[in-house]
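TL;DR need structure tokens for one chain.
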Amino acid sequence: MQVESQGSAQDGNALRGKRGLQRILNATRYSADGLRAAWQHEDAFRQEVALAAVLIPVGLFLPVGVVEKILLIGVVVLVLIVELLNSGIEAAVDRDSLEINPLGKRAKDIGSAAVMLSLLLAAGTWIAILAAHYL
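>> reply
TL;DR here they are.
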């Protein structure tokens, strides 16, 4: 555990005082690390990526307007974003303790509720747009 926390401190310090291209490169590397970690450790993220891999191409090829395409794809990407944030919350809560704490449970439940709402928004958007064109 000690090595992980030292690595995190070094990562955080790597951005301090950096400007321009080096800061962008560092931030990009950290983002890629986050995506890799979510893929490796989060089943829900992998499932949602699989769903996105199907829905995004479908959204691109549906004969709908450009704004509707943006909405169809945007809500799918939003689900991934909210899942990443939820996974971050869960990791931070679990870092402090694996015992069930009421505040930790509340944080995790609220994150889960955010994912559920984003999924409902995505489903509603897809249904509304498809219904408007095909029903």
